[in-house]
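User: tokens in, sequence out, please.
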């Protein structure tokens, strides 16, 4: 079995390395038949469950992976900007969101996140205000959540790029319902402080904090300023497409991890649901235990996707079990 897994790992890494080389040679990452074909092939290769542990890859493969994530980020931004401009030409852009080729993925991901929040946050959720950090030029997640799941919620969307927010504002100009509940702010999450305490739920986009240490800093900053009891939704995983989120960093940031979901369908993000707890200190302790792999209510459930909540994995990965059962070493 180990030999078979090694062959699968080697084959997948070789395939992705080849795709990275082909993508890196493209003259532009703007949407085109060649760009679309290569990224479709990449996503198809990365979505199915695989035995690859990207943290154990050699230096060469790690360098390739980091470069690929940067290319994915750039290409995703260009794709969203392209369709945002296209949609803005309509009288009511929100009526034509189906033109975006991955719109159904956002519908599925937002439904998954909402149902995870409703199931695992104590008391459920009825948020008055939500923040989405890293909303980009085409904030489909915020729209779907606002239109389909949270009809009474105000959404504040934050992005570093002023041009992205300018594009986004045009998309909502004709809508008196969702548009009236959306605001867009050009800001670095590191510069947000008091306003973070006003949100019931904060969503953290997968590409905010590209390097692992940057992601950890962002989570720690949110933990410092978010209100006790507020929920945090972190997107990540698919280690060749997005930065991986370390559960230990979430615990050290002052959050209790409530659930983890790894979809096995066309949703390319894994989802982590956490909650800011006054009992969780910046050191990541909760009643003398590390919070990265165990909640105050027991082992963190790894939920079978998509939303098949009756099927939970009782045995989390060995790393999480070891971390949850060990005292924190200072």
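Assistant: Sequence out:
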């Amino acid at each position: 079995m180990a030999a078979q897994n090694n062959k699968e790992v080697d084959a997948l890494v070789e395939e992705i390395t080849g795709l990275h080389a082909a993508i890196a040679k493209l003259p532009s990452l703007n949407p085109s038949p060649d760009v679309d074909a290569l990224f479709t092939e990449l996503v198809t290769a990365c979505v199915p469950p695989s035995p690859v542990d990207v943290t154990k890859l050699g230096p060469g493969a790690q360098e390739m992976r980091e470069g690929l994530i940067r290319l994915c980020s750039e290409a995703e931004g260009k794709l969203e900007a392209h369709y945002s401009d296209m949609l803005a030409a309509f009288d009511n852009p929100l009526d034509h969101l189906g033109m975006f080729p991955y719109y159904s993925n956002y519908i599925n991901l937002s439904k998954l996140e909402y149902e995870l929040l409703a199931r695992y946050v104590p008391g459920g959720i009825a948020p008055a205000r939500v923040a989405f950090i890293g909303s980009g030029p085409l904030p489909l997640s915020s729209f779907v959540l606002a239109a389909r799941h949270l009809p009474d919620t105000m959404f504040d969307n934050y992005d570093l790029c002023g041009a992205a927010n300018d594009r986004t504002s045009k998309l909502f100009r004709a809508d008196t319902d969702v548009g009236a509940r959306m605001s867009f702010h050009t800001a670095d999450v590191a510069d947000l402080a008091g306003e973070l305490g006003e949100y019931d739920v904060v969503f953290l986009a997968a590409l905010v904090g590209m390097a692992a240490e940057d992601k950890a800093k962002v989570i720690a900053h949110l933990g410092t300023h978010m209100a006790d009891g507020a929920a945090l939704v972190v997107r990540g995983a698919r280690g060749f497409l997005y930065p991986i989120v370390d559960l230990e960093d979430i615990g050290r940031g002052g959050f209790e991890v409530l659930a983890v979901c790894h979809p096995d369908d066309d949703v390319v993000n894994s989802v982590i649901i956490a909650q800011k707890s006054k009992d969780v200190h910046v050191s990541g302790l909760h009643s003398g235990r590390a919070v990265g792999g165990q909640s105050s209510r027991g082992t963190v459930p790894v939920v079978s996707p998509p939303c098949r909540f009756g099927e939970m994995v009782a045995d989390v990965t060995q790393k999480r079990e070891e971390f949850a059962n060990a005292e924190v070493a200072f």
